[in-house]
Amino acid sequence: MDVRTARSRTRQGTRRAGHGLPRLRITRGLNAREEGQEMTALKARGVRRTFEAELAPVRALRGVDLDVARGEFVALMGPSGCGKSTLLNIFAGLDQADEGEVFVDELQVHDRDENWLAKFRRHHVGIVFQFFNLLEGVSALDNIALPAILGGMRRKAAETRARDLLDLLGLGDRTEEVPSVLSGGQRQRLAIARALVNEPAVLLADEPTGALDSEGGVEILELFRRLHGDGQTILMVTHSADVASGASRVVRMRDGRIIGDDDDGQGNNDDGRAAGVDVMADAPAQTS
Ligand SMILES: Nc1ncnc2c1ncn2[C@@H]1O[C@H](COP(=O)(O)OP(=O)(O)OP(=O)(O)O)[C@@H](O)[C@H]1O
Q1: Rounded to the nearest 5 degrees, what angle is found at the Cα of 226, between the Cα atoms of 225 and 228?
Q2: Residue 261: what are its φ and ψ, rounded to 5°?
């Protein structure tokens, strides 16, 4: 079963009461790519963000312009503190730009209130964090089903979708387990399943392999490549050039600005050397 099958099996369940936002599905990304159209999944224009700090304000983003087309898998790299997470959080609706314009799947995300952003986060983006952020003491199934139920899906449909995703991500036999008994790689797969449950237009991942050993890192990167192969748009922050090399495009930041952008997937760190664990050492070139 692929992502599309899982999605269509529960299509009925994903129709929910009006939440004030137009419903966008990741199949749009697939269709756009299949039809050869360039549709923008992420767009930033002149984005600035400054944080107040004790000594002096921190200018985390100093005018960022970025376009990510639907269906792209983009790795965002750069030295610590250059603004990667800040940019990802702004696309995720977890933070707001002080200046500039932000669009996700052609929805305006800048200048929105928290109520709107909460709905936006639930329905339009899937967010994956370095340290999983799962509900401890809650089964794997419920970790996935609960956000779908909060998103308006009926429990039965949400559980069906959760089971489909767990099967899809190789956790079909762990539905009743709580996160603490799972390995790091399994927890991150669970977090990715949760991020996918509401069929987000974009998957936003902040160092998803950062807390994993090399085997776990390979597993997650393979999964992202599989999802990308299925049409999922992905923006992933990473410090590892090896992880970035699994993406279809590498964007580099420094000091709150984008300083490099390529689409050859051959990300190097700022010294021009391969960095981090060699997570691709044993990985097949293409898994989807
Ligand atoms: N809520 C905040 N309050 C104050 N300063 C912040 C806040 N969030 C981020 N910063 C600062 O903004 C700058 C950019 O932070 P950001 O987390 O985006 O960098 P990063 O490139 O993701 O770093 P890392 O790779 O270490 O995670 C840093 O100097 C950071 O300390």
Answers
A1: 65
A2: -155, 120
Query: 11: alpha, beta or left, given left = phi > 0 and alpha = psi -120 to 50?
Result: alpha
Closest ligand 1 atom to Cα of 86: 18
- Please give the distance, rounded to the nearest whole angstrom, from the Cα atom of residue 246 to the centre of ligand 1: 25
Nearest protein CA to atom 29 of ligand 1, as residue? 81
Model pLDDT, residue 80: 96
**Burial bucket for residue 248 (CB in 10 Å: 0-12, 13-18, 19+):** middle
Q: Is residue 84 lining ligand 1, measured as CB closer than 6 Å?
A: yes
State which H helix or E strand residue 227 sits in.
Answer: helix 214-229
Is residue 29 scored above 70 in pLDDT? no
The pTM score is: 0.82
Please state at what angle helix 184-196 crosses helix 214-229, rounded to 10 degrees.
20
CA of 191 to the centre of ligand 1 (A): 23
Residue 79 near ligand 1, beta carbon < 6 Å: no
Phi-psi region at 156: left, alpha or beta (left = phi > 0; alpha = psi -120 to 50)? alpha
Q: Does any ligand 1 atom lie closer than 6 A to the CB of residue 240?
A: no
Q: Using the 8-state DSSP alphabet, how is residue 246 labeled?
A: T
* Span 157-200, pLDDT tens digits: 999 999 999 998 999 999 999 999 999 999 999 999 999 999 99
Domains and CATH numbers, the chain: 3-262 (3.40.50.300)
Q: In terms of DSSP bridges, do strands 125-128 and 202-206 run parallel, antiparallel, or are they unpaired?
A: parallel
